Amino acid sequence: MRIGELAALVGVSTRTVRHYHHLGLLPEPVRLANGYREYRLRDAVALARVRRLAEVGLSLDEIRDVLADDRGRELREVLVELDADLARQQEAIGVRRARLAVLLAETELHPDSTVSPDMAAVLRDLSPADSAFARLDREMLMLADTAADPAGRAELIDLMRPLTEPEALARGHALYERLDALADAGPDDPRIPAVAADLVAHLPAEMAAAMVANLPGAEDPAAPGSRGDGEGGAWLEALSAELSPAQAEVFRLVVVTLKERT
């Protein structure tokens, strides 16, 4: 049979057949005197096998490895790996659909709806709506929540729960007001040291330790002009870009103080 007949028999296009020939997945058949390929039943069986392996999700490189092993030992190993990968994908899809169901169940959707329910609950209490600095803090926390894996997200929530206690909430809201008051101030504002000291005292011990653990290795990574390195450096850089000079100086002092305590 000709290439068009072979393709129709197996249910692929002639272009696919030629592509498989080019990749070495399908052996070249004998050619007739006029140069046309002459396919036989064994060619159709080989093509059908390639198609079945592709349909279950094997890459073309994996199919080539399978076809090179006549005893099928490689095929079983590849299929087991493929099944495990599909199971992981199915689990991830289930988690995403569960989060989507929570969103769809809400009467009114708002920015906090895009984060995990636990983080949304924390943010509703933690950040006063009328504070510009609280809005920035909220955005950074939402970003951290979205970027984290499930274990990291749970750890972040646990670190923040002490800040949602009534007394801590009152102190936190007062600190937001003091930070807002520094929005137009310079780095030499006399209020800065006291705000930094009170902010350090406000942080739970576990949160402070986690912050220090994620800081860059430089002695003073938050100093003006320093970019830092690693994940902690990236977060500090992103935060500093949004702060006034006075607010940035507050966090420079916070970082220095926390590192000196370790």
Automatic annotation (TrEMBL):
SUPFAM superfamilies: Putative DNA-binding domain
Superkingdom of source: Bacteria
Keywords assigned by UniProt, alphabetized: DNA-binding
Pfam family, one: MerR_1
Gene3D superfamilies: 1.10.1660.10
Listed GO MF terms: DNA binding; DNA-binding transcription factor activity
SMART domains (alphabetical): HTH_MERR (SM00422)
All copies of domain HTH merR-type, residue ranges: 1-69
PANTHER family given in the database record: HTH MERR-TYPE DOMAIN-CONTAINING PROTEIN (PTHR30204:SF93), REDOX-CYCLING DRUG-SENSING TRANSCRIPTIONAL ACTIVATOR SOXR (PTHR30204)
Protein name: MerR family transcriptional regulator
Taxonomic source organism: Planobispora siamensis
